[in-house]
Design goal:
This protein is α/β, with parallel strands linked by helices. The protein has helices at about 50-65, 85-90, 105-115, 130-135, 140-155, 175-185, 210-220, 285-290, 295-305, 325-330, and strands at about 10, 15, 20, 70-75, 95-100, 120-125, 160-165, 190-195, 225, 235-240, 245-250, 260-265, 270, 280. The strands form 2 sheets. A 12-stranded mixed β-sheet has the order 9-10-11-8-7-6-5-4-3-12-13-14. Helix 2 links the parallel strand 4 and strand 5 (about 95-100). It binds S-adenosylmethionine (SAM) and iron/sulfur cluster (SF4).
């Protein structure tokens, strides 16, 4: 199938420009809302896409379809050996290149990744209290992650954004601590609503802290004003006193599906048109079966053509995907 260069548009008119690449499904943490304590059945190493295969898919997305941003994620992307080599390859595509990480390896890797061409970093951190952090991640690594945030800033990443999954009765009492932390450190904190992509399928709506409530709590102490929203899934606010920005990603209570421009590539080469989709398109068989760039473009086009209007969280028809966030690439 030959596809013409031009945007990758779905049947609802959404143009897709953002590629999320999971470079590994493995992780050195075991966040309770993402992975079981014993880990998961990891994808066999020979089934994980090589850097050359990832670069090929990314090149088709950029050169054929005009994608303008790529984000590396996982699992934990920094556990993939020689990640800077992949970053250097992708940097030649000339698009915005970002990564989401748990931050634990940044003291060792931030400078090298920056030098290789990584533009932006999101670091995940759900508690500023050592004991709670250890319970949530099943790793006693808070100090290492805080040092990783410093290392990212020292390496010149700006802005550094902090992802905080806020859960009722778990860490919702730390909203103001995170706001103060972000203001003091010059990092943009983004509170994410807990989504039904947990390993033990124990998610329930009562654990979701609505973004609106978080923003109101911060606004009462540090007054805020909204910032105009582009394709960013987060609602962003500015502190009136110049203390920087803070955001909320309301994937459950006010989803951004109508503006979604994302395509996801899993570590083993499946393309997904939605975090919550139950179907995937296999690109690895195209890559390893002698397919050319037209074949890859055709597979991507079919995948996006099948994209639904939006996820159905909260409705009786919603079915949680069998994969966890770590297996999809959040
Ligand atoms: N390991 C890296 C990290 O933690 O930043 C990258 C992968 S992780 C799957 C990407 C993001 O998804 C993290 O910010 C994490 O907190 C978030 N996440 C994982 N499971 C989630 C869930 N069930 N609901 C909401 N966010 C989740
Ligand atoms: Fe690992 Fe990130 Fe999942 Fe935590 S959220 S278990 S750090 S992949």
């Amino acid at each position: 199938m030959v596809t013409r260069p031009g945007p990758l548009v779905d049947t609802f008119g959404r143009e897709h420009r953002d590629l999320r690449i999971s470079v590994t499904d493995r992780c050195n943490f075991r966040c309770t809302y993402c992975m079981p304590e014993e880990g998961l059945a990891w994808v066999a190493r020979h089934d994980v896409l090589t850097f050359e295969e990832i670069e090929r898919v990314a090149r088709v997305c950029v050169e054929r379809f005009g994608f303008d941003s790529i984000r590396l994620t996982g699992g934990e992307p920094t556990v993939r050996a020689h990640l800077d080599v992949l970053v250097a390859k992708l940097a030649t595509l000339g698009v915005d290149l970002a990564m989401t990480t748990n931050g634990s390896a940044l003291r060792a890797q931030a400078r090298g990744l920056r030098e290789a061409g990584l533009d932006r970093l999101n670091i995940s951190l759900d508690s500023l209290r050592a004991e709670r952090f250890a319970a949530l991640t099943r790793r006693d690594e808070l100090a290492g992650v805080l040092d990783g945030i410093d290392a990212a800033l020292e390496a010149g990443f700006h802005p550094v954004k902090l992802n905080v999954v806020c859960m009722e009765g778990v860490n919702d009492d730390e909203v103001l601590d995170f706001a103060s932390f972000g203001r003091a450190r010059g990092v943009e904190v983004r509170f994410i609503e807990f989504m039904p992509l947990d390993a033990d399928h124990a998610w329930s709506a009562v654990q979701v802290v609505p973004g609106e409530r978080i923003v109101a709590a911060i606004d009462a102490v540090y007054p805020l004003r909204p910032v105009a929203r582009g394709s960013d899934p987060a609602e962003i606010f500015e502190y009136l006193d110049g203390g920087g920005r803070v955001g909320a990603i309301t994937s459950v209570t006010a989803p951004f599906c109508a503006r979604c421009d994302r395509v996801r590539l899993t570590a083993e080469g499946k393309v997904r048109n939605c975090l919550f989709s139950l179907d995937e398109t296999d690109l690895r068989s195209v890559l390893r079966g002698g397919g050319d760039d037209d074949d890859l473009a055709g597979a991507l086009t079919s995948c996006v053509a099948a994209k639904g209007r939006g996820h159905q969280i909260g409705s009786v028809t919603f079915v949680q995907p069998p994969r966890t966030m770590s297996q999809i690439g959040g």
